[in-house]
From TrEMBL:
Residues 1-26 are annotated as: Disordered. InterPro entries: DNA_bd_Ku70/Ku80 (IPR006164), Ku70 (IPR006165), Ku70_bridge/pillars_dom_sf (IPR027388), KU70_core_dom (IPR047087), Ku_C (IPR005160), Ku_N (IPR005161), SAP_dom (IPR003034), SAP_dom_sf (IPR036361). This is SAP domain-containing protein. It is found in: Nucleus. The lineage of its organism: Eukaryota, Viridiplantae, Chlorophyta, core chlorophytes, Chlorophyceae. It comes from Tetradesmus obliquus.
Amino acid sequence: MADQEYDPDALDAKEEEDDDSHESSKERIIALIDADQSMLATFEDDGTERSYLAWAMFLLEQQCSARIRASPNDEIGVIFYSTKQRSESDELRSFEHVWEHVALAPPDAGTIRKLRDFQEASFQDQPGCDDVAAAPGRAAEDLKNGLWACWDLLTKGGAASARVDKSLLIFTNNPDPLHDAGSAAPHLREQLHSRARELGGLAVSMEVVPLVQLSDPAAFDYGPFWRGLLQEASSAARGCEDGLAEAGQAAALQMDEAPESLLAKVDGVLGINAKVDRVRGINLRIARKRPLAALTWSLAPGLKIGVQLYGMVQIAKRPAHKYITRDKADLVTSSNALVAADTGTILPSVQHKAFVPDKKLEGRFDKHKAFVPDKKLEGRFDKVMLSRAEERELRTLRPKGLTLLGFKPASCLKDSHQLGPSRFVYPDERWLKGSTAAYVALYRACTVGREEPLMSVCSYVPRSGGMPSLAAMLPQRPGYETGDDGTVQLVDSPGFHMLLLPFRDDVRAPEAEQAMLKRLDGVPPRASDDQVAAAETLISALSLDIPGEPPFSSTLIDNPHLARYWQVLEDLAMGDEPRPLEDLEDDTAPEAEGIDAHGATIDAFKLAVWGSTDGPPAQKKAAAAAGTKRKAAEVDGTVAEEYAKHDWRGLAAKPGKAGLEKLSAALLKTYLKFHGLAVSGNKPELIARIQEHVAQQPQ
């Protein structure tokens, strides 16, 4: 007990366990790549010809780059199966025809370097591509060993790995590894299904990525082999008690009806002959966005569906500073040691075996083993041990999740109601079966056949017993974009956006506050009709939306300087020389010519509001520039006497030491105090403030 720090959350975790589990914020991904001779065939896309093995490395390199920026805690590993040699690592040495290319760990520059430098020639030397066609049943045996190796890696970490999402990506072009197994096919099939069930028991999401679909989406037939393997993994996955999950059934039916890839279904969805960016499509299938939370949505008494909430905006925090060595760029760390006071030598550490009472546990138990609550734990144990019935009643009154209250037209939602970023709501079939069908039915009822979609209003409780808040479920219709090369991309997914609605006290109304009315003599200012018309004309003239073009978005503006920064940073991390600087075309600067073209509109607005094209009065501008926040105090006789001794206009006109610079800061503040200006800042700021004020005064 003395060696471990007391953690009341861990101690009482089992007692407080309920359905408040949020989704994990970390993912372990293992790419299991088929290294058969057939994977050395080449495919060309946009003038780049690579083998299927090299395409797999290219796709994984892009994933690693994205994970480093967005999810640096994720772990990625790359394993080959059907290799001639076995892995040299201690963890996978016992698996035959399995080679570990990248160890399961957070990706870094070394990981990207290893994937980028992949060469088929060197790979043929070590570990080599096995010819599975020469030995019947070899493909299935190698796949079984590969699945077993993935299970062994994903089980490392014990109970801590239960809160981590796990994904297995199988890159292959073999539609049926059992086609040449003969009489051994039933036995091998059962072994493979057993491996899939064990992976499903670890809540591993298994995905088959046939690279041959890059050249022809209909070239790969999932067939009964891969359908059965995925079904076995789905049936044992998290949230499935018996039988096959609805998501697995839907996927299997989809494969039965159309064996081709989902990438080929864009033509059917859009009803046009579209060229699909298949490389990007496979990247989207590999990258899985993790939800922020999983909860239930109560649509009616006795009808609940499972949904997941996805964040649309991620907070970009500035990373902490880290110090590295100059020669090897190693991270500088601190260490402690015992040093002899007389000789200065480092003493060896001593293992303390004696029991040392922990002060944090004092007061919990007296010498008779009776419970004596201390002040630190008093509130917690009162709640857990004495008010369990009250706590259950509170959770019953305020259950976690969403509760549908009613519907409103979408036009009732104002811009002022959105106080934060929205969250995208998507059905979760693993949570409750039938959620997808009910979700789609609700979405169609709110959008199909309506010019203005319906908005559902719900009560949202983020956790059991928490304070409820109102949320608006705004439906979003699907949106597609067609590129210059004919490529069609889905840019707006169909579904609901959840917007947390503010309470009345959350929305400020300064014009109705008593303090504001008192400052305005009880009459708030009102703009005249001419001023309102001038403001509307000004806003229309300066609108950034151009007729006939997509609406303006700040995400569509390229920042070449920021891109150059990340480019140089990536090159330095990879140990390469920075790429040569190209001509940067900066689109972030405002278009001065376009703004100047609306000079007449701007002048008309100034004339309507201030009665002059010069804008606000000069005295107000000077006070605003000087930073005056309150009424200046009365000028005393000492300040006025000192102020009269100097020719301030003449000093302001002289440069350098002959002018204001020869005066001390105390004398400069005399001028500022006399005119009621701010006196903060260093000496150059004081001089600049005086010169600006003198220039605004009449001669």
